Amino acid sequence: MNSISLGQYYPAESPIHRLDVRIKVVVAILFVVCTFLCKNVLSFALLLSLALLSIILSRLPIGLVARGVRPILIIIAITSLINIFFSTGAPENIVVDWWIFTIYREGIYNALLMIVRFVCLIVGTSVFLTYTTTPIELTDAIEDLLWPLKKLGVPVHDFAMMMTIALRFIPLLVDETDKIMTAQKARGADFSSGSLAQRAKALVPVLIPLFVSAFRRAEELAVAMECRCYHGGEGRTRMNVRHVHAKDFVALFGVILFGVGIVVLNTLNIGYSIS
User: Fold this and answer.
1) Domain for residue 273, yes or no?
2) Strand, helix or coil for residue 103
3) Is the residue at 84 inside a domain?
4) pLDDT mean for each 10 residues of the chain (275 residues)
5) Is the pTM of this model over 0.85?
6) Helix, strand, or coil here: 95?
7) What is d(CA 88, CA 106) in angstroms, rounded to the nearest whole number?
8) Could you list the residue range(s) of the whole structural domain that residue 98 is in?
9) Beta-carbon contacts of residue 215 (< 8 Å; ≥ 6 apart)
10) Within a domain: residue 76?
11) Looking at the chain, which terminus has fewer C-beta neighbours within 10 angstroms, N or C?
12) For 8-72, where are the alpha helices, taking DSSP H only?
């Protein structure tokens, strides 16, 4: 449960921490787009170098970032196996031909590049959005970026508030789950042995108190907001007014230049290209 990085903020003094949150949201979106633009080995190498550079500039512990990748290892493994066993290639590039399985060199390359894509995708979004930005700052930035939708009658502030509450409750529910499971283990509960059905049945004593606790927290929060006369974002002001500085534009321009570099590298017929 502690491997879940969503909603976990790591306080530090770094250039990425000091960037304007709105710029970090845009940079994260551009980084995600860049991960899907990569087509050959050179572009993937450039993508991996930017992911490593972002970790260095954010001054995050490598172990913390690695724990954020751990929850998607199953997805990475399944995707890699699909690429290895179902990708086709030239007959001279057959590596293994046994029974109904035929593994091509192209399939192995596809699997390796997809692993790099998944890892860079998680690392980039975690560094720019999760570990270096608090949930409240993130939702305020999203509200600012979606401000034009207010003209169309979209309740932007309500959407941002719901996102803030959801992100804030994720680490609380994770801690609550850990406490409930520890208490159940002290009473003799076993969550790691038996068949899949037995292990799923053993989670029932965990889910019921977890749902009760979640509903109780939601009710307490609703009562607290009502007692403080909260009526949405109309007419409300903020304690901290954000301003975009030159370093923010430099970071944004750097990521745009990085995306242009990936597009240029994709046009070069050097090394293996992913489909």
Assistant:
1) no
2) strand
3) yes
4) 61 90 91 88 89 91 84 86 82 78 84 89 87 83 83 81 79 84 83 76 84 89 86 68 85 91 81 59
5) no
6) strand
7) 7
8) 21-267
9) none
10) yes
11) C
12) 21-37, 41-58, 62-69
